[in-house]
Inverse folding.
């Protein structure tokens, strides 16, 4: 070998090796988003409010007395069964159109059209300037990078998923670091920033509940839990006498629904308490859960009402006189500011006191279409859609 | 491809065995960058390579992962710089290593002018070829590609020797016409070997560096025979 590297070659080699240093140092300083159990104040970033799906926003100061319409954005292809999301001063609605509206001014900040109906969840990122919207449809899951200025956003990554023939889409669930999509055929966990699929399991077609690093699902027979990082099954219980179709993980167990029955399960699947109401609900509705009580739409004779049960022993506290609307799949009343908010049977929206069940306010205006989506409460506002429009309500 | 071409190519490598070490080093470097990108929070995807895209006549240190354009939009400035720096390093090392391999195996001094010309041959193909629509590429067919690749087979070697494009392109065509059997054989060998390196995502860049040395030595061998 007669080659002796020149000084230029040695310097080039050192430069090449040294050029890795900035790459390495930025990479090592990267901190993935922190997993949260309660989303940041002022937001409602996913269906059910938090990863567990409690529908309880402890930070919101939603109106307890009369409300007025603050703004409305009309003529969009939305879906009443796709509830709103709120993050960083913007409310989002997802259907065929994905729409973002400034919570204060009502001005459009995002208009993205997709080929089919989608459900969304907002995820933070320490790598991208803005939050991203994880969108799940019956054939794909994708991440939409939200634009700085009003625009349509950019699809950052996309994966195909196996869907089912049903037209009921399960919204994605996130804890900030993981995005969970249950299509019915598949349960898929994706890293929402980089879009890497971590694992896939058979799905249940119900909204998963994510708590304590575990993804809980119910498939009408079993309640299963999977480690969110590895996908390893950690829980498999068969609740006695129940065929649960929705689940909310609580610190010591689960709140499940089986048609009109609401029940509390211990971690081993045994029943702590159960409350059954006679009558029929056309679709699965989820419960709302606070530290003290469980709120659920229950059949009430030939009608419906909101039922409140003590979390500790299941004692019925009250039933609302205000009649809730037909429930949409996976939806529940929203709980905030010591009140329970829900769409009403007369085509409007209303609120009852969380402690007594007394009607606080109700309004039939200004909604154009029915049904109205589940309500969400973020900041001082209440938001909903009716399939064509997004409405923002505030204290009147 | 005659035995004499292989003999010439082998003797070129024998005269400059350091090319194997440097090629492997560059392959390891690209593999390291691939790994860093795979572990990073930026969206990445499998890089398209031959036969999904048309091949380039330059030495290819085949990276297995790359960014999609949409992944770079909306990034924090630090991460945008990070991604661009990573791409810059990957391209620089591939061009620098390729240019150096051709120069060493031909026994010429690597001049800045030659390296720039070699870069001008390489960079546009990186920008254009990966985004060639699949149906267009399929319609063109591999026969046309092999012919095109063969006609320009020695072009990178000529550019590194300091010959301008205007003279190097017709010279390359002339060399191919003169020893077409050897060049077609070398083309098939090189393209086939590059394609094999894409089968294993982990060792792909390192194996492609070895193929790159073979590629450069075959170009040097053809040019030596023509002399």
């Amino acid at each position: 070998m007669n080659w002796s590297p020149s000084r230029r070659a040695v310097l080039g080699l050192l430069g090449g090796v040294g050029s890795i240093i900035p790459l390495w140092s930025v990479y090592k300083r990267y901190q993935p988003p922190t997993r949260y159990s309660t989303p940041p104040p002022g937001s409602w970033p996913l269906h059910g409010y938090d990863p567990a799906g409690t529908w309880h926003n402890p930070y919101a100061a939603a109106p307890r007395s009369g409300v007025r319409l603050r703004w409305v954005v009309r003529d969009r292809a939305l879906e009443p069964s796709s509830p709103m999301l709120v993050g960083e001063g913007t409310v989002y609605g997802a259907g065929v159109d994905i729409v973002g509206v400034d919570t204060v001014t009502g001005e459009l900040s995002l208009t993205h059209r997709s080929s089919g109906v989608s459900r969304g969840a907002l995820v933070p990122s320490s790598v991208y300037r803005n939050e991203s919207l994880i969108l799940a449809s019956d054939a794909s899951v994708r991440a939409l990078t939200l634009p700085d200025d009003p625009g349509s956003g950019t699809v950052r990554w996309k994966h195909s998923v196996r869907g089912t023939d049903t037209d009921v889409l399960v919204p994605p669930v996130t804890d900030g670091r993981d995005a969970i999509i249950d299509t019915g055929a598949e349960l898929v966990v994706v890293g929402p920033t980089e879009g890497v699929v971590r694992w896939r399991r058979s799905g249940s077609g119900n909204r998963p509940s994510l708590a304590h690093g575990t993804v809980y699902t119910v498939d009408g027979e079993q309640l299963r839990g999977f480690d969110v990082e590895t996908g390893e099954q950690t829980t498999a219980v068969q609740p006695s006498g129940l065929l649960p179709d929705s689940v909310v993980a609580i610190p010591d167990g689960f709140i499940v629904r089986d048609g009109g029955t609401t029940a509390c399960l211990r971690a081993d699947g045994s029943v702590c308490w159960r409350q059954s109401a006679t009558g029929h609900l056309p679709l699965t509705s989820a419960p709302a859960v606070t530290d003290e009580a469980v709120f659920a739409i229950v059949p009430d004779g030939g009608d419906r009402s909101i039922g409140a049960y003590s979390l500790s022993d299941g004692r019925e506290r009250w039933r609302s006189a205000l009649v809730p609307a037909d429930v949409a799949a996976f939806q529940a009343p929203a709980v905030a500011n010591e009140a329970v908010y829900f769409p009403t049977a007369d085509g409007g929206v209303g609120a009852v006191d969380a402690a007594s069940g007394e009607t606080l306010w109700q309004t039939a205006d200004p909604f154009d279409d029915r049904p109205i989506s589940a309500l969400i409460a973020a900041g001082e506002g209440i938001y909903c859609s009716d399939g064509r429009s997004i409405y923002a309500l505030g204290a009147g | 491809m005659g035995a004499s071409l292989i003999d010439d190519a082998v003797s070129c490598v024998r005269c400059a065995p350091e090319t194997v070490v440097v090629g492997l080093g560059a392959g390891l470097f690209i593999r390291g960058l691939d790994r860093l990108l795979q572990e990073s929070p930026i969206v990445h995807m499998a890089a398209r390579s031959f036969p999904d895209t048309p091949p380039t006549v330059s030495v290819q240190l085949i990276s297995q992962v790359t960014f999609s354009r949409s992944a770079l939009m909306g990034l924090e400035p630090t991460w945008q710089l990070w991604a661009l720096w990573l791409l810059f390093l990957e391209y620089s090392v591939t061009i620098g290593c390729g240019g150096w391999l051709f120069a060493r195996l031909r026994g010429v001094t690597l001049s800045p002018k030659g390296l720039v010309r070699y870069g001008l041959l390489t960079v546009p193909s990186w920008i254009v070829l990966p985004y060639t629509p699949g149906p267009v590429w399929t319609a063109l067919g591999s026969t046309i590609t092999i012919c095109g690749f063969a006609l320009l087979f020695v072009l990178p070697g000529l550019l590194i020797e300091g010959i301008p494009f205007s003279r190097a392109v017709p010279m390359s065509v002339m060399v191919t016409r003169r020893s077409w059997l050897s060049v077609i054989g070398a083309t098939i060998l090189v393209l086939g070997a590059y394609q094999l390196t894409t089968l294993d995502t982990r060792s792909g860049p390192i194996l492609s560096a070895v193929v790159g040395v073979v590629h450069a030595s075959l170009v040097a061998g053809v040019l030596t025979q023509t002399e």
